[in-house]
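ligand=benzoic acid
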Amino acid sequence: MSIRLGDEAPNFTAETTEGTIDFHQWKEGSWAVLFSHPADYTPVCTTELGRTAGLKSEFEKRGVKVIAISVDPVESHNGWAPDIAAVGGTDLNFPIIADPDRKVSQLYDMIHPGEGDTSTVRSVFIVDPKNKVRLTLTYPKSVGRNFGEILRVIDALQLTDAAPVSTPVDWMPGQRIIVAPTMSTEDARQRFEDVEEVRPYLRWAKQPTA
Ligand code: BEZ
């Protein structure tokens, strides 16, 4: 069964490049990004994992732990790690799950039979500190993901959790936000700066600070 937004992220125990991990225990109290890649020693995957390693401080700043998965065994992940470091310019600094029996991949519906073989497609699950799934993305094997977009979504989720706001099309951190429909314009003027009502249902405001 597919995993929907708001569902509890299914827990699992798995072998990783950093030892055996119980997912919920490993991420306890943190946000997490769980993302699959099709196979080790493949070009797009090498660039994606290298980029993720280079973004470690950006994920840490936001309280996010990152974990990758593929159906290859842990010895393969360990053998591939120097290539990821060489291509990305940073040592591998997050665990990669080894899932040769496809237990976790099937639990998260990461294998799409129409996509060629029994390896995982490029899935992304953003999970919040309470283990709720807050975002899912699925990319085909031939298309690398944009990890800047993953950071942008985490920023938007953390902002909209903290205040009654939404983020508009193409929003980037620091830009104007939209006041939630549940808040009156009068209340919005008390709470936010630079409120502009362009329609009764569309009120812009300056992004609130934490
Ligand atoms: C890649 O990472 O380059 C890749 C992996 C599987 C299928 C296609 C591309």
